[in-house]
Amino acid sequence: MSHIFSSRSSDLNAASGRERSGDLQHGDKSGLRRSGEAVLPVDFDRMAILLDIDGTLLDIAPTPHEVHVSEELRRMLARLARRLDGALGLISGRSLADIDRIFEPLRLAAVGGHGAEIRPGPGADAYRMQLSPLDPALKLRFAEIALLDPGIILEDKDYSLAIHYRLAPQLGGAVIKSVAAICEKYSCDGLSILPGKSVIEIKPRGFDKGSGLKELMSFPPFAGRRPVFVGDDITDEAAFAMLPRFSGVGVSVGGIVPGASFNFDGPKDVRLWLYRLSDGPDGETG
Ligand SMILES: [Mg+2]
Fold it and tell me: What distance in angstroms lies between residue 7's CA and the mean position of ligand 1's atoms?
């Protein structure tokens, strides 16, 4: 076990928490599984917690705008951020503006737009990486895919585009074929096409959640801490891949993926873990 967590470390699975309504009402089993001999340790002074949002912290909603953040969850995140001296961050494909909208009035450190935007702290200035947005003409071609069916939803995130087909899962193949056809005709050199859970993300190369994580980790209070990153989808793999540089720990949701040492069954288990952490191993409230 790394010396970084040698003080005040405790077994994650032993971190106690009082039962609450909502996420904890079905018992206190966190759903976390160990991988190999390792046990995820906890040291609030030296760790940073970085969370993907959709499918990790929050249950995936039929459309991106319909995700729900309860008042209780907001309060817990605020409490956890205090315990970590601010070293709690969100790493998402959503824009910072969208992240703030869904967590309002809570603001956290965040990486938005798959690494295109970074805000090191709640009150810090956000800045954008110097990147070229998607070519508007090409964007328009991809946007036309949404005309295939009302169940296909286009999410324009400025620096990237997401084509969601959760409401029309039978059209997943057609969406993928349409994207491939556009790329064949107009060339997608310089773009990353990332299939996710009922979504295809299209973004320029040169930045991703891994580069975003690296940037965020260069700022206080993150710098010098050991990141624990929790993510569930293909776009999170870049963040998992960046973790060894910071002696970080990867935790996947819903399935074991490369770079993850631990796994949660679903977002509910992630929230349960966070609730426990926010109260502390000794049940102290912050
Ligand atoms: Mg996700």
Answer: 32
| 202 Cα–ligand 1 center, Å | 15
Between CA 221 and CA 207 the distance in angstroms is: 22
Q: Is residue 40 part of a domain?
A: yes
Q: Is residue 54 part of a domain?
A: yes
How many angstroms does the Cα of residue 284 sit away from the middle of ligand 1?
A: 30
Pairing assessment for the beta strands 47-51 and 226-231 based on DSSP bridges: parallel
160 and 125 assigned to the same domain: no
Whether 114 and 38 share a structural domain? yes
Q: Is residue 285 included in any domain, yes or no?
A: no
In the chain, the number of structural domains is: 2
Averaged pLDDT for residues 204-229: 95
- Tens of pLDDT along 224-255? 999 999 999 989 999 999 999 999 999 999 97
Of 204, 231, 260, which residue sits at a domain end? 204
Residues 70 and 149 in one domain: no
Ligand 1 center from residue 234 Cα (angstroms): 8
pLDDT in tens, 148-179: 999 999 998 878 899 999 999 999 999 999 99
Question: Catalytic site residues?
Answer: 52
3-state secondary structure of 183: helix
